Amino acid sequence: MAQTDAAPLPKHVYENANPADNSQEYVISRETLNDNTPKVRRPTKYDVNEQSLPLFQMVCEKCEEVSDKIADFVPVWDGLVGKMQDISGMRKRYILALFFCSPFFVLGLILASPILAPMLLLIYPMIMSVKAIEHKQEARTRWLIYWLFYNAITISEQFIGPFLHVMPGYAFGKGLFFVWCLVPFNENGCYYAYHIVRPLLIIPVRKIDEYIMVSINKIKNIVHDNQDLAANWTLNAATLAGNMLANKQK
Fold first, then answer.
1. The predicted structure's pLDDT at residue 220
2. What is the pTM of this model?
3. Is 76 left (phi over 0), alpha (psi -120 to 50) or beta?
């Protein structure tokens, strides 16, 4: 390894790396250093500290073992994973972990669907209600505020409903609150409650809109830049699969 009195490393070695990083991936031995040394990969936002995540590290190692076994039978596998790595900028082990763990994620969504489905059905009208309330029209605003709180209470009951219903007087208090919200006065329950809750809702809604727009633009750029590459991958994979089947039939 490098010694303190040795000559400094060439500038190009640390051009895309963090010299303060002491991990094994970014340290280059001076004995093996030469003019043809490739640039060190720049750390990305997808990199995580695996030392603090032993379970995640174990999962990544197992995924790499499975990937090596698959590559022995499917030669095109390493090429596909490499192309995905080039496009996404993620490390190979992270791509493999996402690929092999995705079935368990889908299974978890299926098992949690009785809770998630009602919640997802109410989140969109809740967000749109917050946006519509900003346009001041008295009759519509009063109805939208009532609808907003109905959604919020229904979503909360999906998670903590059993605990809330155990509380004495919860159902009675909820009924009184909604009756107060329906009172045909400007300063009813919805008016006071919304002025308390509004600062907590409007900022997250704006952040959600910004995140959605940024994500959509990134997806459009990726699709636009790699649509020809994806078509070539599909064609090459189909050709290799056809050749393998033809060879087996012989």
1. 76
2. 0.34
3. alpha
